Hints:
- This protein is of the alpha/beta class.
- Helix content is 30%, strand content 30%.
Amino acid sequence: xxxxxxxxxxxxxxxxxxxxxxxxxxxxxxxxxxxxxxxxxxxxxxxxxxxxxxxxxxxxxxxxxxxxxxxxxxxxxxxxxxxxxxxxxxxxxxxxxxxxxxxxxxxxxxxxxxxxxxxxxxxxxxxxxxxxxxxxxxxxxxxxxxxxxxxx
Length: 152
């Protein structure tokens, strides 16, 4: 018996026409956390992107804050059908209720679940880091800058 090596292309993929897609990420360097997110339409065009410094924290907290902030921005822009993608399996599984999040994340995860109920449709999906590349770059820019930044 032998195994075959299989290759797969991993990349960002557009979503359904009636959906906006949120990609989110968190990063920590020398205990300083940055959260970032981006919203794109079904054609992959940028709707909004941002990163923000959140102080001394952990990667899971940066990830969950990025997810929450992305949902808040989608709601502010009046999107009602949202697909969320992130490379943090912990966050995706927590918001999908697959397990109880760590105690430090419970309030933020509850905020995300509450925001989700205000939308017509929401899908939370885990993706590989390669498919989350652009928001990873945006988030990591935050380590080189002193103030929050956003793109419209």
